[in-house]
Write a structure and sequence with these properties.
Shape: globular
Strand content: 15-25%
Helix content: 25-40%
Number of strands: 8
Largest sheet: 6 strands, mixed
């Protein structure tokens, strides 16, 4: 029996996205990396050059008996602005895009339903631009990026 599942989210600088998930009950592990591009095993410098197509992504390993995928979606949408196209605040580029990489049809369905639900509430002044795309290869980022804010006793990027 599978004890944990994966969920991949890109919502700007991966340091802050990781921190928003890292301490949630039911989250087993978080890993920052790169996903959704066309270059194998990219480096941070390559991703920041805007030539790889990758998004800075957090892969969340979680126990669905303790925290649901729907709850992870809530965390994701509460901790970034899903209306900004290819940016978050001062961070600009496709590597900072709002994206959900789904691992199965249920995640895809829940992500799309969550976006529709949020659009009906008018919580955001602009349309949601979050992409919902299939998970592909997740490339782990360099070690110094892992739990970056936690290691420095910070809880926000900017």
């Amino acid at each position: 029996m599978k004890k944990s599942e994966l969920a991949d989210f890109g919502g700007g600088c991966f340091w802050g996205v990781e921190e928003s998930f890292r301490t949630k009950k039911g989250v087993i592990a978080t890993t920052v990396g790169y996903e959704g591009g066309h270059v194998d095993n990219p480096t941070y410098e390559q991703v920041c050059s805007h030539t790889t197509g990758h998004a800075e992504t957090v892969q969340v390993e979680y126990d669905p008996k303790i925290i649901s995928y729907a709850q992870l979606l809530d965390v994701f949408f509460e901790n970034h602005d899903p209306t900004q196209f290819n940016r978050q605040g001062l961070d600009i580029g496709e590597n900072y895009r709002s994206v959900i990489f789904y691992h199965n049809s249920d995640q895809k369905k829940q992500a799309n339903e969550k976006i529709k639900e949020l659009e009906k509430t008018n919580k955001f002044d602009q349309p949601i631009v979050t992409q919902v795309v299939p998970a592909k290869t997740f490339w782990k980022a360099e070690e110094y990026h892992q739990q970056y804010l936690h290691k420095r006793n910070l809880n926000i990027c900017h």
